[in-house]
Amino acid sequence: MNQMLKQKFPILQHTLRGKRLVYLDSASTSQKPFSVIRAVSHYYEQYNANTRRGVYRIAEKSTQAYEEARARVAGFIGAQKAQVIFTKNATEGLNLAAYAWGEQHIKNGDIVAVTQMEHHSNFLPWQRLCRNKKAELRVIPIDDQGRLMLKDIKDARIKIACVSHLSNVLGTINDVARIKSMLPKHAVLVIDAAQSLGHIPVDVSAFGCDFLAGSSHKAYGPMGSGFLYCSARVLNEMEPFELGGGMIAQYFEKKNEWAEPPYKFEAGTQDVAGAVGFAEALAFIAKIGLSAIRVHEETLTGFLLEELLKDKDITVYGPIDGRGPVVSFCVKGIHGHDLAQVCSAYNVCIRAGHHCAMPLHEKLGVAATARASFGIYNTKEDVEILLKAIVRAKKIFYL
Amino acid sequence: MGSLLYRHNILDHYQNPRHFGKGDAKARTAEASNPMCGDKLTLYVDADQSGNIRAISFEGEGCAISMASASLLLENAMETNMSFDELCALPPSCVYDLLGVPISSAREDCALLILLAIKKVKQG
Question: Is the peptide bond before A359 cis (omega within 30 degrees of 0)?
Fold first, then answer.
């Protein structure tokens, strides 16, 4: 399926010094299909106008497109339209949850549970909240396979638990529905779906979560758009985080009346083109089908893992089975950054560093790892070129 | 560029860093890190009152560029009897000259980590 799919991504048609682009950093940001790029440019060319403000035709069309985009996101994750707040990315969504809900509901003595494998965006806002509120930040540890050890999450003092659906380093897919069933009944579950959206099914009703954040740009959509899903329960308990245009229903000198959700959480002019592009990306994913995407990405991940594990100089992190399309590894004697540099000479893009997950790297006992991650456009040949680059790096470093 | 960057002397300094190790207890010390790629080094400078360097060393872990830059710079400083003040006044170009290969913008922080450590030692 992929040679044909590759054709749909303009950036993958370019070569550098005769070498085609082998893009293996989709966990950082995915490439964009032509249909998404076209939807964004079409918006600016044909109906760019502010939403919910003008009565003229293009303003109506812009508003309609924005709301259709919201409906598309809601439909993709099994939510109601009014439960989807547009944000600039998953990070903003998680911060919004921490401020708009956390600030009012977390008290001295409560426990906020986060996992050891969280990205900084689902760790730092909760860490600060705990410091401000004198609450306990409980870090749910991982085992040697990179799976969560859940024995401490039944504690009745846990008010909120913040869990990544798919780890951006280990590739671990967390059984978030099971986590929800283990948590105390009243506890709020926050899911960071930045890595899973577009790769595996995301269904808020099946998960039973109260918050779920995602980004457009990791799911073939434009940068600058994302969302926060809120359950009916938390949506009604939240105060707006940002104040400004579009989020107020009635101004009163003493106490303002806010607009209904989701608008009360969307102050100021929004990234409408981004939302339109995001919706187009979700349509693109739906057309291919998440099950076909999953099969393809599992095949590539399995192939890469199998090859890496053959090499005794390579350490692979995370579970072997049941993982997403993300593989982090270290090659003995070669820092991840140096490996990525050698790969770059082959026009192969991999990521190196701590991938914004320093608590996890502390646990792994390494300052940095190299990471290859897949999207629907990747092929077995892409993996073979990466493997060649690793062999080359070893030749350079193991003189 | 992959192999050009990792020419023999850079790899040699990475794999066999000079002046590598913990300094004396009386040495002034500072830690510098490059959070984006996880390079970390600690610099130990033992200088007398007039700024003559009696001993200098570093330890840490990081990419080839960060470790080789530190090794090359400290070796050069000791070979030329550089004073601590002279060491502190070194511009980035000095590190690039010692490396002798073009450094891309993404690797500048790696190459200049040793200068950051020197600055931090100076600031105390």
Answer: no
The token pair at A231 is 């359950």
Provide, as residue numbers in chain B, all residues whose Cβ is less than 8 Å from the Cβ of A344.
Answer: 1-2
Question: Hey, which residues of A are catalytic here?
Answer: 356
A393 — contact with chain B (CB < 8 Å)?
yes
pLDDT of B6: 82
CA distance B60 to B73: 15
Give the whole-angstrom CA distance, residue A22 versus residue A7: 14
ipTM of the complex: 0.87
Read off the pLDDT of each residue in A236-263 and give the average, rounded to a whole number. 89
Would you call A368 and B37 a contact, using CB atoms and an 8 Å cutoff?
yes
Residue of B nearest to A366 (CA): B38
Q: Name which of B2, B15, B62 is nearest A342 (Cβ-Cβ).
A: B2
B20 pLDDT higher than 70? yes
Q: Poorest-confidence range of A46-50, A214-218, A251-255?
A: A251-255
Q: How far is CA A75 from the centre of its chain?
A: 18
Which run of H or E residues covers position A37? helix A34-46
H-helix or E-strand spanning residue B95: helix B92-99
Closest CA to A216 of A75, A69, A325, A21: A69
CA pair distance A285, A220, nearest whole angstrom: 8
**To the nearest whole angstrom, how far is the Cα of B47 from the nearest Cα of chain A?**
31
> What is the least distance, in Å, from the CA of B86 to any CA of chain A?
31
Residues 6 or more apart whose CB falls under 8 angstroms from that of B118 comprise B43, B45, B87, B88, B90
Instruction: Identify whether the C-beta of residue A161 lies closer than 8 Å to the C-beta of residue A113.
Output: yes
With beta carbons less than 8 A apart as the criterion, state whether A166 and A297 touch.
no
B2: nearest CB among A345, A352, A367: A345
Collect all residues of chain A within an 8 Å Cβ-Cβ radius of residue B37.
335-337, 352-353, 368
Task: Cis check for the bond before A262: say yes or no (omega within 30 of 0).
Answer: yes
* CB proximity list for A194: less than 8 A, separation 6 or greater: A89, A90, A119, A121, A164, A168, A213, A214, A215, A218
Across the range A310-318, mean pLDDT stands at: 97
Residue A55 has pLDDT above 70, yes or no: yes
CA A258 → CA A24, A82, A350, distances in Å?
44, 15, 45
Largest Cα–Cα separation, chain A: 75
What integer pLDDT is reported at residue B8 of this predicted model? 85
Nearest beta carbon to residue B3 from set A343, A368, A396: A396
* A113 and chain B in contact, CB less than 8 A: no
pTM of the model: 0.93
